[in-house]
Amino acid sequence: MANMLSLKPPPPKSGSMFYNYKETYSLVLLAVVDANYCFRVIDVGGYGRTSDGGILANSTFGQALRAGTLPLPADQTLPGAYHRGPQPHAFVADEAFPLRKNLMRPFPGRNIPREQKIFNYRLSRARMVVEDAFGILSSQWRMYRRAMEVRVDVAEKCVKETCVLHNFLRHTSTTARVNNPTAEVEPLPGLGRVAANYSGREAIRVREVFTSYFSAEGAVPWQDSRLS
Question: Where can this protein be found (predicted)?
Fold first, then answer.
């Protein structure tokens, strides 16, 4: 998941590199978040004009993800679905990122089959943890709520340090929010751009397995009522 951090004034001699589609200057925070709203991987400093997918592809994490060299857990069978065989662990992302074997993105479009709508809902529900983590981060430090009037290198250091402090507080603070904080915080603005999706057969197969599973053994009672 990636979010933009506004810069003011624009970095000297940067041309249009930091100029984004919102017509402001920004750098990008790319992050992997766990179920406890903690940042497990961050990449800071991507140009505001670069797409989320491009920033992921250029990052060390993204390159390892594509090469299949990340130290991920072994494939496991889904609960109650042993007949489907072992499936890979996957990160969840929005439509701005490419579909990979270990990176799930939603199906595009509105007029899609019911099973695909359910998959998109379940993916979005999981992805809200990431949105909430960014929201908690921005609510804890005011610098995320206005343009940073510092050099790019200083801005990058500030972002890294606040992410470390955020994790520390999540682990140690007795007042840390452990429930879903969606209604309490405002997420940082996403980049809002859709990535070209050139997916391999294995990535498509994995998504199809999850899609079928969420409408069968892995269904939850309320999911049909959430479909628009």
Answer: Nucleus
